[in-house]
Amino acid sequence: MVTTQSIEGPEIAYERHGDGQPLIFLHGGMAPRQYWNPILPHFEEYGAVIPQRPGFGTCLDNPAKTSADEVLGREVQYVRALADAVDGDPILFGHSYGALTAVEAAADAAVEAVLAYEPAVLPDSYRKEADLADRMATLIEDGERREAVKRYIEQVLHPDGIDDLDAWLAEWPVWPDCVKLAEEVVRMNRAVEQYQLPAVLDVQAPVLVMTGTGGPDFLRESARGVHETLPHSRLVEFDSVSHSGPSEAPERISAEAEAFLNV
Predict the structure, then answer these.
(1) What is the pLDDT of residues 35-52, one digit of tens each?
(2) Which Pfam family, giving just one, matches this sequence (predicted)?
(3) Of 4, 164, 173, 208, which alpha carbon lies 20 to 30 A from 202's?
């Protein structure tokens, strides 16, 4: 693990693999840094930079007191600081909440390109139903932390239902450690529920927006919305791939990303 200190921002801890052009991987909701392990071998020519999100094991002073309004701004700040710290203009590769952070950070950071898999943006048609943060918070207050995290998994990772969630969780590498992050996930979800996609995202770098037909319909709709707000964007939809696309189908995702970056 390498650590760098930005001049005005938080301390940033990250892993570095390889010596090529920096490719910064930004993980999403419940995922740890290890989320990217399946796709890393497909980008060996790059210098992979994998940070630990603030509040997810970093030296953030007091993540428990960080409000929902501050969450996205805090993460955009650390991504910009990290982009400035690496040599050359990096590429940002974000998944879910990490994809939203990547797109927002690219508005002011010097980056060569952005790869965004299903940015965590809610379409207006779905926003009225988006009460996940409140439902999770109520469960946490009642001492049901595991059940709170299960609601997130059911709504985001398995929106069509799953026959035996407990059996699936038993095989999930980050369970039950991710239960410790329950409050952080509530704040993250509140930030997503409050975020309004602007008419135009002022990102001059080219952006590859990716989505899969096997994930939540609202995220696929949101991917199209993000694509339409960007001045230099390409939208790719992967058949039968879920919200966990980068780890679920690394060959397909990386091949599309390489084709986009090598144009």
Answers:
(1) 888 999 999 999 999 987
(2) Abhydrolase_6
(3) 4
